[in-house]
Structure formats: structure tokens, C-alpha cells
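Risk register update: the risk of archive-format incompatibility is retired. Evidence:
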Amino acid sequence: MRWRRSHTALVVAVAAFPAAAAAYVGPGAGFALISSFLTIAIAFVAAFFAFLALPVRALLRAWRRRRSLEWARVRKTIILGLDGLEPEICEAMMERGELPNLARLRASGTYRRLATSMPALSPVAWSTFATGSDPSRHGIYDFIARDPRTYAPKLSSSEVYGTSRFVRLGPFSFPTGRAGVRGLRKSRTFWSVLSDHGVFSSVLRVPITFPVEKIDGVMVAGMCVPDLRGSQGSFTFITSNPARKPDGGVTVAIPAGGGEVAIPGPASPVRNETLTARVSIRRTGVRDGRGRFELVAGAQRVPLEQGTYTPWVRLTFRAARGVTLSGIVRFLPVSLNGSIAVYMTPIQIDPERPAMPVSYPNVFSIYLAKLMGPFGTLGLLEDTGALNDGAIDEQGFLDQAYLYHDERRAMWSHTLARLRSGLAVCVFDVSDRLQHMFFRYLDPSHPANAGRDLTRHAGAVEDMYKRMDALVGETVRHVDDKTALFVISDHGFKTFRRGVNLNAWLEREGLLVTRDAAAPGEYLSAIDWSRTRAYALGLGGIFINRKGRERHGIVEASDVDALKRRICERLVTLEDGGVRCIRRVVDVAHEWSGPYKEIGPDLLPGYEVGYRVSWDCAKGAVRPELFEDNTKRWSGDHCMDADVVPGVLFTNVPLSTGEARLMDLGPTVLDLFGVEVPAYMTGRSLAAR
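Archived output:
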């Protein structure tokens, strides 16, 4: 995927807080440098008075915490999130004795399948988990949303805002207003509610926690933290062979024998240009008939070994005199003999020198980096795009994924060892990303298997489940009789064999019309809005082109319900070679009653196992093909009907009878700590009385 950067770029002198975000599909939201000298001065004054008030605030927090825990049934609650863990695989492997820690937790406590969100997308599911409510109350329906004024896609979870007022001094531009990033998820998280009652929380890498929120505790943001370029993950490929160029990312040429290259970074905050950092790849000799190379970045000299990732390397981008941005990257030499080909990870925001807050408090990421070394900060760390685009192979992806996994394990272990009371929650993503890319090995007839190896990594998925089980064992060691433990996944996983282009179907139904001779386009660019009544964008659903809501809406309010019924009735009859591909279609306005039911899709198709919205349709393209084989390495998914991709719930807490839902976890934790569940939460406590 290619990511478009925003043009918002504001200058600072010594303190810069850039902000950006993007999603699986859709353009990046850009990168903003905030703010003004006045803002910096105010921040220093506020920090000074906050420091003076620190002893009083500490005493108040201790008093509130003691009062709160008087009513608590537990002293600690630990939530281990294993993104995408599939119940059928868990159950089969437990029966074979391959997941002993999960099996023991099931035997001594409780195990249930956990109903996920609709749609079953990670940003929706984890927002549902965090707020204890459905999308009509938290407002997240997909990775991306559409701006009804322009039909353009935008990130659903956060928004970069800036100023249009600048003062020019020669080639430089200085802002006279403020810029920043705001979170778009509505409702409050349950750890925020706990903060009101003096309960400490440690929240690590939970998706949709960017920008970070102020809590009584610490937080490291997860999904939707941008890279330094302002995208959600833009890799760089350094190559001496023009024919060796991946389908995506940024390609940089280098001489065959090595040399210096300029690595493109973020947009300059003061000039109309892209900042660069210079690195050298140079030959250092020959050993065993093979060339030896090293990488030089500033004062850093790092040996390069083909097929092995380097440690983190710091890149510095000079924005202006006294203003630099720091990022960290790893390099993977793909080829060093005959020609040079080196993959470079997306440029991560340096946690030790953060150009924007990736933690709360901001100093927390600095503390962790000083304690355990640099760590990845990108929201979507595992580079699925690099594997899809051919920049790295499957082994390179696995090595990278487990490097990140081990960083998070260290962070989690450090947290659990120091937690005396309160909440600790951490989400591990490798279980989701690895299944996306390796599920084809579990489905021998998958279209993605054509012409590809079927044996080398055939056990990758099962090996990952065993590693997750070991992580459960490490976590259980910190559980005592005053600790509630929950091991959960936000959804399950199934094979993704065929894509459905909803826009092609809407066009066949006469509900969507393209402009004459228009190319398929992306992001709805081919659509004739004066004749279109419904359209699809993103991984989630279908929008009605409503008059008074969309800029060029043509469907009268009195006709909306009839049009939605027509689409629902027709869409569930859609067949692919005699196979039904859609189980049901959810009418959002009828399903939920929250205040944000109008901001997302009007209809949410629930796909049968094996089907999902097509890659083209997700990006708003209109092609004539209604169905297409999924031949990408991204071969597993969960963007299907919520009923076919439930998650898992393991706990040592006795549970009440009835269905267990993802939205029930927050209310359950509040109940265990003796805190009243807010009225906006639609979930209920699962804890038995």
C-alpha cells in the first residue's frame, strides 16, 4: 500500500510534537509539527505548577485508591490480549496437549468463546472492549471513514488539525496558530473510569489508544501510531538492481559496490521539501568467498549479514538549526553478493527521543527505552505490506514479527513484576499479523498457494499458538488469590479465499453509476454522485448517498428505509458459483441506538467463511468483476460475519451464565474493583455474584 502524506507541517524551536495516523486501507493522515513559542511557554509554566502540586496530588491519589479498593473484590486485574486467537485452533491444540497453560487455565477456571464486535475489525473490536459499548456509542466502524462533505477517506480513530496562518521569512514558514492531533473515538475507556476512582492502570499497546490519554497510570499507544513519515508503515528498499524493486514502499538506488544513500524521511516543517538522513553501505572485506559489508549512520557502524536483521539504528533528520527529528530503523540485507538489496523497516518514532508523545506520560517511553533499549513504536509493527509487495520473504517477516514480540514480552514482564494493585492490560499483535500472512498453509486449496512453497513454514501458525501459550504461562506466574486474570482475543480467524466487490454489485443493481469512460479509480473517484444511491468504502460496509448528509446526496430521507431493505434482501441472495457468500446484512440504525449511529456505514454485510470485501472495493474502486480470487499472501482474515469469528475468553474468575461478549470485559473489570458501571456502557458484568 502507498500512503499519502498530509501537507500540514508546523514549525517549533526546541519542542516538537508531530502527529499522524493511517490505516490498513486509505491514505495516511500526514505528519504535523506542533506548535508555537507561546504554546511552549505555557507548557513550561504548567509543568512548573504541576511539579509544585505533585506531593498534594500523590496524597490525594493514595487516599482515593484506598477508598476505592475498600469495595473491590480483587486487588489486581491482569488482561492479556492475544489479537485474533481462533477458538477452533485453540480447542483442537488443547485437546492434543499442545497448549498446556491455556488448558490448565480452562480446567481451573472458565473458558468460553467470546462474541466479537460487528463488524469484526480490530479497531472496532478493541474500541468495543475499551469502552464497553457498541460502535454507535464509540463511533469506530472501520479503519477508515468517509468525509460526507467530500466523499474522501479519512482515518476513523484520530485527526490531525493544523493552522492555515503562517508568517514567511525568506524560504522559511512559521505558524501563528496551533496544530495537533485529536482522538475520534467516543465514550470513555474503562481504565479512564478507574482513574476517577484512584485505581492505577498500566495500558500497553492496546489498539486505538493513539493519541494517548491522560490516566492515573501509564500507557504506551498501539494501533494507529504513525511512522516518522506520517504513514502507518512505509518501508524503504535500497537496491543496486533496478529490476529488483518491490511493488510498494520507497525504493532508493545504490551503486553495485556500495556507497552513500539519502533515506527520505518526513516532510520539512519549514521548507517545501522532504527531509533526508544519509547512510552508507560499504564493503569491508571478503570472508569465505563472500563479500562483507557494514552500514554507517552517523557515528554508528553496524555489520551487515545477509538474512539477519540489524539492531535498531538511529536516523536523525535535521529540520532547521537546533531542530532535529529522531527515528529508529532495522535493516535486513536481502542480497549482498552480486547485487545489493537491503530492506529497511518503516522509520519508527524514537521512544528515547520521541518527536511526538507515544506514551503517557511522555517520559514513560524514554524510561522504557533507557531501561530495555529501543523498541518499535509504529501502530502496525509487523510489516505485512513488505511481505505482500515482495520486499522480504516469509522468513524475514517471521524474524521481524518475533523481534517485536520479544520487545513487548520484556515490557509486559517489567510491568507485571511491579504491579502491586490496579489494572495491567497488554495486547500482543503477532497472533493476528502472522495468521493474516500464513493462514494459506492451513488451507491446501487456497488460491494464494498457487506457485508457492507449501512446506517450509507449514507449522508457523501452530508454532505461534505455542508461543502464545508460553506467554500465558509467564503471565500466570504473577497471579495470586487476589488477582483476576483474563486471557482474551478480540476476534477469531478464518481463511480468506474470495473477495466481493460490493461497488460492482451496486453498479449491477443500478444503485451506483460511474462517470462516462472513467477508470476504476480509487477512493470513489470514478463515481457519478448525481446518479448514485449507494456506495461502499473500507472493510466494513455500505453507505446510502443521503440528501442533506452527503454533499451530493440524492436519496430522500423518506426513501432511505425502503432502499436499505432492498439492498439487504438482494444482497443475502448473492451467490458465487452456487455458494452463498453473505450471511446477513446489519441495518445500523435498527440494530443500535447510540448517538453516533449515523456517522458510519448504513449497512454492514456479514460475510460467510472464506469471503471478504475485495481489495479493490476496500479502496473505493469500481471494477466490473464481482468476485476475485485472493492470491495475496494475506490469506487469512476476520472481516466476516461476527458470528463466525468469535474470540476466546479464559479466566480464573467465576462467571455468570449467558453469552460472554467483548463489550462485557470493561464492565466486568469495573465491577471487580467495586466501581459502578457507567450508563453509556451497553456491556454487563460477567462476574458471578
